[in-house]
Amino acid sequence: MNSEVGTLREVLMHVPGDEVNLVNESNYRRYLFRSPMNLQRAREEVINLIEVYRSEGVKVNLVDSLPGKPNLMYMRDPFLMGPGGAIISRFMYDVRRGEEEPVKEHLKRLEYPIAKVMEDGEVFEGGNAMILSPRVALAGVGERTNRKGLGELVETLKSMGVEEVIDIQVPINVIHIDEYVAQVDVKTLVTVRQMFPWEAMDRLQRLGFNVIPVEYSQLPGGVSNRLCLNMVAVKPMKLVMGNGCDSVRRLLEHEGADVIEVEVDEVLKGGGSVHCLTGVLARDPISDS
After folding, report:
1. Which residues are registered as beta bridge partners of 139?
2. What's the gap between Cα 272 and its chain centre?
3. Cβ neighbours of residue 130 closer than 8 Å, sequence gap 6 or more
4. What is 128-150 written as a DSSP string?
5. What gap in Å lies between CA 68 and CA 18, rounded to an integer?
6. What pLDDT is stored for residue 288 in this prediction?
7. Mean pLDDT per segment of 10 residues, for the chain of length 289 residues?
């Protein structure tokens, strides 16, 4: 894929299974959860999202459970699909390392090329990068992506024809850039005004992108509470987003977007929403013209 908005064709997802029951009141922080999760409700939410995708003509491939890996449902993080193949993550925390193995096997079976596998010391997680156009990408550096991982990401993307990777510092109160940045149209992004660096916004605008600001005060409970910008475009200006974000939904609809809301109350307990749950394999290409 060469954007976050070309018509969505194929995804990789995981319906949470018994591995989620490992998480309880005494260990949820170790597993990077916000709180323990009701498995049945989480399954219903992910299955509903899968049905939304299928109703939009998207092919959904399912990854089986991996014992001991309750975060596996967040399929965005183990890889990033680029124009020339997949970049396989190297997770920061050992409770997530190993999730990339079934992803690699699925990619091979589906005959998607693997362009790069991050190695020891090269920390990169898929939620920390977005390819915006054939020439431009956005990448975050912080707790879950270090400078070495960023450097490998940049080098790999440039080998695929991406000319410029705009890197931004991820604030300490969030994990990945997809908590506060989303591409909603070919040349349009939405982000949180108080969190997005001025230099990055200035550069994007010089490259012809429109950046729509959301005020921090418009986000219920702050950026990470409902993950209101953690959304997926099924095509330009047709977006799937989590419930409970009325002010953001109204802003997007005012801009002309068609918004599909889905329940995410339970999956949010693991720290992810719609974008996190969706491992994108293929989109229709967009043009820079």
Report:
1. 129, 167
2. 9
3. 4, 137, 138, 139, 177, 178, 181, 183
4. GEEE-SSSEEEEEEBTTB-HHHH
5. 9
6. 82
7. 98 98 98 98 98 98 96 98 98 97 96 98 98 98 97 98 97 95 98 96 97 94 94 98 97 97 98 98 91
Look up residue 190 and give its two tokens.
């939405």
- For residue 264, give both structure tokens: 């995410």
What are the residues facing 59 on neighbouring strands? 10
Q: Identify whether the C-beta of residue 106 lies closer than 8 Å to the C-beta of residue 61.
A: yes
Both structure tokens of 213: 């600001």
CB of 41 closer than 8 Å to CB of 266: yes
| CB 121 within 8 Å of CB 96 | no
Handedness of CA 28, 32, 34, 38 (dihedral sign): negative
**Are the beta carbons of 252 and 190 closer than 8 angstroms?**
yes
Query: How many beta carbons lie within 10 A of that of residue 167, not counting itself?
Result: 21
With CA atoms as reference, report the closest residue to 122 among 167, 99, 155: 155
Q: Could you identify the residue written with the tokens 């299928």?
A: 54
Check if the beta carbon of residue 32 is closer than 8 Å to that of residue 74.
no
Return d(Cα 69, Cα 164) in angstroms, integer.
35
Q: Write down the pLDDT at residue 289.
A: 65
Residue 187: predicted pLDDT = 97
What type of residue is 127? G
Pairing of strands 188-192, 210-214: parallel
